[in-house]
Specification:
The protein has 221 residues and is an alpha/beta fold. The chain has one domain: Rossmann fold (3-Layer(aba) Sandwich). The protein is built from eight helices and eight strands; from the N terminus they run βαβαβαββαβαβαβαα. An eight-stranded parallel β-sheet has the order 1-5-4-3-2-6-7-8, with helices on both faces. Helix 3 links the parallel strand 3 and strand 4. The longest helix has 17 residues. The radius of gyration is 16 Å and the shape is globular. The protein starts with a strand and ends with a helix.
Length: 221
C-alpha cells in the first residue's frame, strides 16, 4: 500500500489545492471511472441485519472489482470498508481519503491511502467533487452530506434505498424539495443486479461523458 500524508498548511484553500493536486497525480494513469462508496460506519442501527448488509456490500464489491473500477472511500470501518475490501480482492484499484485526525480508519486494503489535515466536511467535499459516480448504502449524516453534494455537482448517484439511512432518506427529501427532481442524476435501486445495470449504463453510455463535459465547461467559464 502507498501511504501519502499531505503537508499541513495553515491556509485551508492551499491545503485543498494541495490535496487535489496529489489525488489527480495518483489517478492520472487510471482509465476506469472513480466510484465513491458512501455508507455508514460500524455504528449500524439494530433494525438492520448486519450479516445481510455485509453480504450485500461484499457482493457489490466483488462485482465492482471484476469490472476493474477505481474505488474511493473515507477509509472508515463498516459499509465502505466491506465494499472496498471485496473490490480490492477482485481487481479494483482502491484508495482512501481521510482526515489526519481520524485514527480509527481501515486502510490496509487500499492501494493508495491519503490523509490530509482537513475536517470531515472538507473531506466530504473532496470525495464528492473527485468521484464520477456515487453509491449510497445506508449511512448517517456524513454519507448524507456526501450524497447531497454529488447530486448538487450533477454527478450520478445510485441509492440502495432498501438499506435505509441516507440511501433511503435523500431521494425522499429531494423529491419533496427540488422542483426539477426528474432531471437529477439520481437512481433508486433495490438489488445488486439493478445497481450494476445502472453503473453499466452510466459508464458505457453518454451520461458519464456528459457529466465530465459539464465539469470541463464549468472550469473554462
Amino acid at each position: 500500500m502507498k501511504k501519502i500524508k499531505v503537508a499541513t498548511i495553515e491556509c485551508r484553500n492551499v491545503v485543498i489545492n494541495d490535496v487535489e493536486v496529489v489525488i489527480k497525480k495518483e489517478i492520472s494513469t487510471i482509465k476506469k471511472p472513480t466510484i465513491a462508496i458512501l455508507g455508514g460506519s460500524l455504528d449500524i442501527p439494530k433494525s438492520i441485519n448486519r450479516n445481510l448488509l455485509k453480504a450485500l456490500c461484499t457482493s457489490i464489491g466483488e462485482k465492482l472489482g471484476k469490472k476493474k473500477f477505481n474505488l474511493l472511500t473515507t477509509g472508515s470501518s463498516g459499509i465502505s470498508a466491506w465494499v472496498a475490501k471485496a473490490a480490492s480482492k477482485n481487481g479494483a484499484t482502491v484508495w482512501t481519503l481521510s482526515a489526519t485526525s481520524n485514527k480509527s480508519n481501515e486502510t490496509d486494503f487500499a492501494d493508495v491511502s491519503l490523509s490530509a489535515n482537513l475536517d470531515h466536511e472538507f473531506i466530504s467535499y473532496l470525495i464528492s467533487y473527485i468521484a464520477d459516480i456515487g453509491i449510497s448504502i445506508d449511512g448517517g449524516i456524513g454519507s448524507l452530506i456526501k450524497a447531497a453534494l454529488m447530486v448538487d455537482y450533477e454527478k450520478p448517484l445510485i441509492c440502495l434505498k432498501n438499506t435505509g439511512g441516507a440511501a433511503a432518506r435523500l431521494p425522499e427529501l429531494l423529491r419533496e424539495s427540488v422542483h426539477n427532481f426528474q432531471d437529477l442524476n439520481l437512481y433508486e435501486v433495490e438489488t445488486v443486479n439493478e445497481l450494476m445495470k445502472v453503473i453499466t449504463r452510466l459508464t458505457e453510455g453518454r451520461i458519464l461523458l456528459q457529466s465530465k463535459l459539464q465539469k470541463i465547461l464549468s472550469q473554462i467559464e
